[in-house]
């Protein structure tokens, strides 16, 4: 077998998967998005831009997603970074593995069940009842954007911790010593050595979390009480409730386009950051 | 047959039972070797009520039947009995709305054998060729004369029976009277929406279902629950958008929040109202004086059901009045079957939640097919949710 033949064979399973599970469904979505809703719902072939013209009707869903996805990513980053830093740099090596396993443990239970648990924690008999004890009364947490944000950070934190951890773990500690020897304060060492060296991990973690959040629907449905509405929720409703497949496809295609644009812009930004610092290889 | 024994020792019986449980012997082997099969047959033949009905007790109906239904709507013990009698396990899929059920069937390949459509969906299923006409000869437990025609009627379209009645009920609201704080108990939809935007701000739930949520917003103005008039819908939308900031949630799974005390009032179906009231008497079920919805649910078979024999067997089993009465006592929804009513305790038949006063009942309307499929109502609900 030629080298070329072997290469093709190696790529065949992934290629077939890619074609059947991504390319074909995406093509169907795009075709449907130019169609019309059938009288009892579903799809009727047509060629119209009507569905795209109707997109402003879901403006609130796009707005919520475009605000809460970056906010959730940022909040995850702010919580994950110190944790990853501690695990990689500070933690006693004997305990490192145990601590890492503890970060993964929540993944052993379905996200649906873990999100449900938050209903009770954030509900009237949970955290608000505790706050009431110390005199802060009438706090409403469940079914608010804040509850959704908590669910997001809780659900996706490990996805942010791991890339940053792997990055920091590989950090050559001699660089930190060199920085200290040259008279830099610990804070300055962090800002000028550790942080830039961990940028690839941050970039990867943010990308992972952001992409998943853009398509999120479960957490807003459970912790938002149907009042915090993401594009994902709009899609579920369009396909399962109002059965407007044509409009649903237009919303889906727009979401994919938005993600392509934002991820491309993000990659460019990261690459430019990397190019400015020739001493650090990024991505 | 010299070794033929006329009894089996306790120990040998337990050993066989263990083998059967582990799955190492078949049910037939178990029933044969323990003598239970013969015993059941003898017993059944001598006690008419226990005689297996033809269709659900007949030979090989396969090892499973897939049922698409609503939450809290079946007694699991009945399914266990069905499996024990027929060998077919009931695989249950629970849904949140008729629209979702319709969407799954329209998409195709649902794999369902039996589903539970509500009255107003059946003509749509017939129109879309998604539903199988029923062969009533295979449902001997269905006795048309025993069913209230008001609730059984929608199962027949153009003279063909497509669905047989399961339960009926109403859509009202449940209110936790302990939170009223001196206010009189609301009795109308007008009060429901007014209290929501005032004393109960942040404490009311509405269904994540356009039919009931929009329908009961229309009742605020005294319009028909089924209105598809654009001007009337516009008024309902204005009310819904005005109420939205005051809602606790838009969710059809309201029991957990009502029971925990997070929510104080919710749009509510009969059975949920009964279940909550049974455990917490302060949660009362109210039918709005202006009216609202009266509905009936059916058993039906979708086109292309993979286990057709098992589907008929399950429907027939569930319509057995003794089984149906157990179902009804479990979930709290009345049946339109006189034979079942005869088996129900008097306190159930006199329960005002299950059997509302005639003047309240007369004000109610059946949902119409167009109410479910009207694109404007669907889009209104979407605007309300995403606002």
Automatic annotation (TrEMBL), chain A:
<feature type="transmembrane region" description="Helical">
    <location>
        <begin position="66"/>
        <end position="87"/>
    </location>
</feature>
<keyword id="KW-0812">Transmembrane</keyword>
<feature type="transmembrane region" description="Helical">
    <location>
        <begin position="141"/>
        <end position="166"/>
    </location>
</feature>
<keyword id="KW-0472">Membrane</keyword>
<dbReference type="InterPro" id="IPR035906">
    <property type="entry name" value="MetI-like_sf"/>
</dbReference>
<feature type="transmembrane region" description="Helical">
    <location>
        <begin position="202"/>
        <end position="225"/>
    </location>
</feature>
<dbReference type="Pfam" id="PF00528">
    <property type="entry name" value="BPD_transp_1"/>
</dbReference>
<feature type="transmembrane region" description="Helical">
    <location>
        <begin position="7"/>
        <end position="34"/>
    </location>
</feature>
<feature type="transmembrane region" description="Helical">
    <location>
        <begin position="245"/>
        <end position="267"/>
    </location>
</feature>
<protein>
    <submittedName>
        <fullName>ABC transporter permease</fullName>
    </submittedName>
</protein>
<dbReference type="InterPro" id="IPR000515">
    <property type="entry name" value="MetI-like"/>
</dbReference>
<keyword id="KW-0813">Transport</keyword>
<comment type="similarity">
    <text>Belongs to the binding-protein-dependent transport system permease family. CysTW subfamily.</text>
</comment>
<keyword id="KW-1003">Cell membrane</keyword>
<feature type="transmembrane region" description="Helical">
    <location>
        <begin position="99"/>
        <end position="121"/>
    </location>
</feature>
<keyword id="KW-1133">Transmembrane helix</keyword>
<feature type="domain" description="ABC transmembrane type-1">
    <location>
        <begin position="62"/>
        <end position="268"/>
    </location>
</feature>
From TrEMBL, chain B:
<dbReference type="InterPro" id="IPR006059">
    <property type="entry name" value="SBP"/>
</dbReference>
<protein>
    <submittedName>
        <fullName>Spermidine/putrescine ABC transporter substrate-binding protein</fullName>
    </submittedName>
</protein>
<keyword id="KW-0813">Transport</keyword>
<dbReference type="Pfam" id="PF13416">
    <property type="entry name" value="SBP_bac_8"/>
</dbReference>
<keyword id="KW-0472">Membrane</keyword>
<keyword id="KW-1133">Transmembrane helix</keyword>
<keyword id="KW-0574">Periplasm</keyword>
<keyword id="KW-0732">Signal</keyword>
<keyword id="KW-0812">Transmembrane</keyword>
<dbReference type="InterPro" id="IPR001188">
    <property type="entry name" value="Sperm_putr-bd"/>
</dbReference>
<dbReference type="InterPro" id="IPR019546">
    <property type="entry name" value="TAT_signal_bac_arc"/>
</dbReference>
<dbReference type="InterPro" id="IPR006311">
    <property type="entry name" value="TAT_signal"/>
</dbReference>
<feature type="transmembrane region" description="Helical">
    <location>
        <begin position="29"/>
        <end position="50"/>
    </location>
</feature>
């Amino acid at each position: 077998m030629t080298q070329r033949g072997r290469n093709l064979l190696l790529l065949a399973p992934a290629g077939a998967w890619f074609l059947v599970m991504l390319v074909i469904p995406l093509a169907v979505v795009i075709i449907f998005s130019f169609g019309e809703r059938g009288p009892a719902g579903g799809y009727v072939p047509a060629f119209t831009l009507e569905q795209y013209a109707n997109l402003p009707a879901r403006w609130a869903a796009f707005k919520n997603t475009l605000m809460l996805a970056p906010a959730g990513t940022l909040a995850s980053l702010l919580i994950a970074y110190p944790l990853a830093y501690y695990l990689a740099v500070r933690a006693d090596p004997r305990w490192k593995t145990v601590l890492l396993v503890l970060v993964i443990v929540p993944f052993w239970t379905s996200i649906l069940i873990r999100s449900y648990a938050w209903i009770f924690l954030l509900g009237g008999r949970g955290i608000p009842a505790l706050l009431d004890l110390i005199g802060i009364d009438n706090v409403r947490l469940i079914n608010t954007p804040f509850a959704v944000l908590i669910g997001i950070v809780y659900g996706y934190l490990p996805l942010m911790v791991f890339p940053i951890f792997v990055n920091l773990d590989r950090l050559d500690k001699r660089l930190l010593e060199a920085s200290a020897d040259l008279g830099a304060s610990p804070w300055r060492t962090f800002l000028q050595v550790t942080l830039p060296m961990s940028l690839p991990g941050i970039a990867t973690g943010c990308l992972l979390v952001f992409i998943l959040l853009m398509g999120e629907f479960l957490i807003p449905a459970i912790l938002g009480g149907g009042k915090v509405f993401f594009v994902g929720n709009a899609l579920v409703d369009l396909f399962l409730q109002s059965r407007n497949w044509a409009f649903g496809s237009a919303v889906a295609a727009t979401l994919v386009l938005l993600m392509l644009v934002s991820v491309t812009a993000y990659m460019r930004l990261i690459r430019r950051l990397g190019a400015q610092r020739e001493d650090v290889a990024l991505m | 047959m010299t070794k033929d024994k006329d009894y089996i020792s306790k120990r040998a019986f337990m050993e066989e039972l263990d083998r059967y449980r582990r799955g190492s012997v078949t049910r037939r082997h178990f029933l044969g070797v323990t003598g239970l099969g013969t015993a059941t047959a003898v017993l059944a033949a001598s006690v008419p009520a226990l005689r297996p009905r033809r269709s659900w007790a007949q030979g090989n109906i396969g090892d499973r039947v897939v049922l698409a239904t609503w939450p809290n709507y079946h007694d699991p013990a009945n399914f266990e009995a069905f499996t024990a009698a027929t060998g077919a396990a009931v695989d249950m899929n629970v849904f949140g709305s008729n629209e979702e059920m319709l969407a799954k069937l329209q998409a195709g390949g649902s794999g369902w054998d039996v589903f539970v459509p509500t009255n107003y969906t059946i003509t749509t299923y017939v129109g879309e060729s998604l539903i199988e006409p029923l062969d009533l000869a295979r449902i001997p437990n269905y006795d048309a004369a025993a069913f209230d025609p008001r609730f059984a009627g929608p199962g027949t379209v153009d003279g063909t029976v497509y669905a047989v009645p399961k339960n009926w009920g109403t859509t009202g609201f449940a209110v936790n009277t302990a939170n009223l704080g001196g206010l009189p108990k609301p009795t109308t939809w007008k009060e429901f929406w007014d209290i929501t935007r005032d004393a109960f701000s942040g404490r009311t739930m509405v269904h994540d279902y356009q039919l009931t949520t929009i329908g009961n917003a229309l009742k605020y103005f005294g319009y028909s629950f089924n209105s598809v008039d654009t001007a009337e819908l516009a008024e309902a939308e204005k009310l819904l958008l005005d109420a939205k900031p005051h809602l606790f949630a838009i969710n059809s799974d309201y029991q957990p929040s009502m029971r925990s005390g997070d929510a104080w009032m919710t749009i509510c179906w009969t059975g949920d109202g009964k279940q909550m009231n049974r455990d917490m008497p302060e949660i009362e079920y109210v039918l709005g004086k202006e009216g609202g919805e009266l509905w009936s649910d059916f058993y039906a078979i979708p086109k292309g059901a993979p286990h057709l024999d098992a589907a008929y067997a399950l429907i027939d089993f569930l319509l057995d009045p003794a089984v149906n009465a157990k179902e009804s006592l479990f979930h709290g929804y009345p049946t339109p079957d006189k034979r079942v009513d005869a088996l129900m305790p008097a306190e159930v038949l006199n329960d005002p939640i299950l059997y509302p006063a005639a003047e309240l009942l007369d004000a109610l309307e059946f949902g119409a097919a167009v109410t479910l499929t009207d694109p404007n109502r669907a889009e209104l609900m979407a605007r309300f949710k995403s606002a």
